[in-house]
Amino acid sequence: MGMSHDGNSWKTSVRVSSRSDVGLRRANNQDAHAVVMATTLHQFHKRGHLLIVADGMGAHAAGELASKIAVDTISLSYAKQAGDDIAEALRNSVYDAHKQIRNQSERDEAFRDMGTTADALVLSPFGAVMAHVGDSRVYRLRDRVFEQMTFDHSLVWEIRASGKIPRDKIPSYIPKNVITRSLGPSDHLIVDLEGPFPVRSGDYFLLCSDGLSGQVEDDEIGQILLVLPPDYATETLINLANLRGGPDNITVVAAQVTVPLDVSGANANIPIDKAISGKTFSLLAWICLGFAILGLLLSGYSLLTDKSGSWPTMVSAIITLLFGGGFFFLAGRTVTGDDREDEDHALRHYGNGPYIRVDATPEPVFVSKLATTMQQLRDAAQDEQWNIHWADIDHHEHLAATAGNTEDFGKAVYHYALAINSMMRELKQQKRKKH
After folding, report:
1. 14-43: per-residue pLDDT in tens?
2. Given strand 14-21, what is the order of strands in its sheet?
3. N or C: which end of the chain has fewer CB within 10 A?
């Protein structure tokens, strides 16, 4: 089911759509996701918008419960964390979710060893920050470059990272779906943090479970995001994953930044001693010291040249006292432990992402794949005698073919995607009527 989140003023800076689908081969959906949009300017400044995807693992309903606990706990814990450090608050909330899953598995034998991946993204005026465990992913599209911002905690990726085997020489017998880190199964957990990354107008973020990334290539996902807004993009990506077999649950959360996040007034609630960095305080302190010395020199000169102690001497003395006091105050502000910590938080960067970069420029190979998919759907409709309303589908397919012939591949991808979406909606409607 898709959800769009719009609002007024600063709220419209991010457009979000989220969808989750059981896929074609699973009996239940063990994925979970959440979109927690800030509801006040203060909340946006302090905690930003929070997006989460979790992919559960475990027999029966265990995986479903694990992912739900993760999403619910991260959402609540993150909002309640003390302090202004977004990255640490996000990481602590993931640890809290891990503890909750461990407690549940220890209480009930049916949920023993259940686990889940977890990817949480915060978009705030201070940048994009991610907390990550497992092989679900966070991507970013900027201009025409599509980047994977998180490192897969999987056997294949760990072997690649070790450097012992070249990336293109990984043996095919090594399973791609074995993950090396997840919430729940073991006492010890390491949560990766990535960011903060500056957020620009036009940036497009995507969180997904491996039900998508296992079926749709990175460059294909990037091309879809490049030409489609969030609602259409999430629908198209899930449809493509299902049309390519849909072996797993598929969850997608897409967030498109429409205006700069550091909007007017976003920093209004920062105390002045937090808003000004230690380096700025240091500079101001030295300026005050300069004026204090100047005042002292003027006082000495006035005393030497004017023995009556007239007003120039008094003014010089006042200047010396004021700026001297200012120097000692500001100098003290730059050396306190709290300020050094604040500045460290402002400058600290976590992780080594992006880990993969691909070109998302629409290209003829992907257009050809989409055209083939549409033809296969048409052939199946004819063979199975589906009762399809073709008008909208024909319209978009015609526009896509025309665009492809004129090498306008972005437009071709756009219209083939809409044609596929229309076709899949028709099929789902027929399925509902039969049941």
Report:
1. 999 999 999 999 999 999 999 999 999 899
2. 3-5, 14-21, 250-257, 204-208, 137-142, 145-148, 356-359
3. C
Sequence-distant contacts of 262-265: CB under 8 A, at least 24 apart: 262/125, 263/9, 263/10, 263/13, 263/125, 265/10, 265/41
Sequence-distant (≥ 6) Cβ neighbours of residue 13 within 8 angstroms: 257, 258, 259, 260, 261, 263
| pLDDT, greater one: 158 or 3 | 158
CB 342 within 8 A of CB 274: yes
Instruction: Give the pLDDT confidence of 328-337 residue by residue, as tens digits.
Output: 554 554 444 4
Q: How far is CA 368 from CA 36, 188, 223, 362, 377, in A?
A: 38, 47, 13, 11, 14
Q: Indicate if the pLDDT at residue 314 is higher than 60.
A: no
Q: Specify which residues 147 forms β-bridges with.
A: 140, 357
Instruction: Give the pLDDT band (50/70/90) at residue 167.
Output: low
DSSP-assigned letters across all residues of 210-240: HHHHTTS-HHHHHHHHHHS-HHHHHHHHHHH
Tell me 154's DSSP state. Answer: B
